[in-house]
Specification:
This protein has three helices and no strands. The chain has helices at residues 2-160, 165-187, 189-193. Helix 1 (2-160) runs antiparallel to helix 2 (165-187).
């Protein structure tokens, strides 16, 4: 009986061990499967991490390039602003020079206008002087002719008069008065034209 009990106990123990072994093998299998899953997930995570690191590195490179490009653009912008400032200063300088030249040109034009007016005035004065000179020359010619006629008349009267020396003396006095009148007309044309302004009598000479 004891043997039977021991046998049953052994069988039960063996069966329990087999069951425990089966459970252990199942747990091991589960653990192996979990390990494989974890390793797969870890591999995926490592790949994703590698991709993220690569993307991060690429982004870092891009950021560095963008920073360099931004610095270059800032430098170009500073250069453009400096050139613009210089251009504005040069423009102000040119505008000032243009205003100065314009004012000088205006003054020159005004001076030229004044010179032209003076030139026209001098030309008019010269023309008037030439006209007056021509008129005085005509008067001199007329007075010369009048003198010659007076001399001829005196000679004719002296020759034809029976009174001889008296007539000659009177003719000479008349000739002297005529010559004096002619001299005054030549030396003072205003007496001939407007004798009243000089307070002298008008003899009608040169009319």
């Amino acid at each position: 009986m004891i043997c039977n009990y021991n046998a049953r106990f052994l069988r039960n123990s063996e069966q329990a061990e087999q069951e425990n072994l089966a459970d252990a093998e199942e747990k091991v299998t589960q653990l192996v499967n979990q390990k494989a899953d974890y390793e797969e997930q870890l591999k995926e995570l490592e790949e994703r991490l590698a991709q993220a690191e690569a993307a991060n590195e690429e982004m870092t490179v891009n950021n560095r390039q963008l920073d360099e490009k931004l610095d270059s653009l800032k430098k170009e912008l500073e250069d453009v602003e400096l050139n613009l400032k210089r251009a504005e200063q040069e423009k102000q300088t040119k505008d000032s020079q243009i205003r100065t030249l314009t004012d000088e040109l205006t003054r020159q034009e005004e001076a030229m206008g004044k010179v032209n007016r003076e030139k026209r005035s001098l030309e008019d004065l010269l023309k008037k002087t030439q006209d007056d000179l021509a008129s005085e020359e005509d008067k001199c010619n007329n007075l010369t002719k009048a003198k010659q006629k007076l001399e001829q008349s005196v000679d004719e009267v002296t020759t034809a008069s029976p009174f001889g020396g008296v007539t000659w003396w009177l003719g000479r006095r008349s000739l002297a008065g005529g010559l004096f009148l002619i001299t005054l007309c030549v030396m003072c044309p205003l007496w001939v034209n407007q004798p009243g302004q000089l307070g002298l009598p008008s003899f009608g000479v040169g009319k």
